Amino acid sequence: MRRALAFVGVFGLLGLLGVFGLSRTLRAQSPFSLGWHGFVNPHYYADSRSVVGGREDMMLFYPKPIVRDSMGRDINDGWQANMLAITARLGLRISGPDMLGAKTSAYIEGDFTGSTNTAINNLRLRHAYIDMDWGGRHRLLAGQYWHPMVVHEIMPMTNPLNMGAPFHPYSRQPQVRYAFRHKRLEVVGVATWQLDNMSQGLLDGVPASSTLFARHSLQPELNAQVRYRGDRLFLGAAYNLKSIQPVVPDPEGRLLHQPSFSLFGSHQGEELIVRAQAIFHNTLYEIASMGGYTLIYNDSTGRWGALDETFFTLWIDLERSHGHWRPGLFCGLGFNSTPAYDIDYDPNDSFYYMGRGHDLTGLWRLQPRLTYTTLTGLSFTAEAEYTAAVYRGDPIPVGNLRLSLSAVYAF
């Protein structure tokens, strides 16, 4: 299976290179212009203990709990190191003629992180969308793009794959996005669907991750935002509603509705850039954040109930942008705000914990970084990332120190 996936990835890359070779000819023969860009990003990282993460743990969420063996030793303690270059990226921007009164463009981008952990190192689609802009007042985007809770204008500038996750959401989804702008105010409405990042539920009686839980709801994930854009200040608020059918099949077709709220903003000074976001959510598990729900399923009747696992997360990113040296600091804080439930359950009930972080009461991260850039596409970054997690029943945090070195050659 892995060989087949690798073959598909190589075949896809050769196809992209073929299109790249034809781009000059296409420019001369059509009204469309093509622009290629991308980067190569080798990344070395070392952790002081085992972590909950993805893509060979390059996507780090938080450290694993203390688990002792028969000799009393913590089996999750101890340094480990790795090096990857899977975030190498290639993008193609297409600019076309005006159509239907709008300026039109499209964008396609891929990298090699794979769509799942088992498909790592294979070509993965990141972005693929059509963009139509009516003079900056109305704008319509359709295709695969950042999830609306990932506000790309304020994304933290950390270098590893997680980009501030799980405090900062990080995911792309197929969607239709409409934005209306009047002077400094902007209203955005988005409908999204799932693909690589899927909800969890009970599929044919077995816990699984699948798009079927969202597809059976017949409802896209909905997001509404209000934004203010000043000369240096950017502020906004968002409301997100996800609806899933946690049990498939379910003759009654009952749905679980999970709302989320966000406040976000940034300020760009002469040299200091500040970005921040606060989120209260009842599961953004699918977009590399925290939260979930407890599914209570009755094995004899097939009936189910759900208890939400809600989290409050807050992050801030500071960066000095001047000259060759660019220091920065990311700080993240998260709390599990789920109350203690007193559940009166049937002996035939089974409990399934869906999502991420149900066994945590809180977590935090400090992540200083220092980047040296040549200002011509080549940069080097050193980071120290300390993440601490507090597990239920143990008030003492468990911490992991990640040290990383990376280089970026952008073109």
Give an overview of the whole structure.
With 411 residues, this protein is mainly beta. The chain has one domain (2-410): Porin. It has helices at residues 2-29, 212-215, and strands at 33-40, 43-49, 51-54, 59-63, 77-84, 89-95, 103-111, 124-134, 138-146, 172-182, 185-192, 199-203, 206-210, 221-229, 233-244, 247-248, 256-268, 272-281, 291-298, 304-309, 311-320, 325-336, 349-356, 360-373, 378-391, 398-410. A hairpin with a 7-residue loop joins strand 6 (89-95) and strand 7. The model has no long low-confidence stretch (mean pLDDT 91).
List keywords for this structure.
three-stranded mixed beta sheet, 411 residues, 2 helices, Porin, 55% strand, single chain, mainly beta, 16-stranded antiparallel barrel, globular
In short:
The protein contains two helices and 26 strands. It has helices spanning 2-29, 212-215, and strands at 33-40, 43-49, 51-54, 59-63, 77-84, 89-95, 103-111, 124-134, 138-146, 172-182, 185-192, 199-203, 206-210, 221-229, 233-244, 247-248, 256-268, 272-281, 291-298, 304-309, 311-320, 325-336, 349-356, 360-373, 378-391, 398-410.
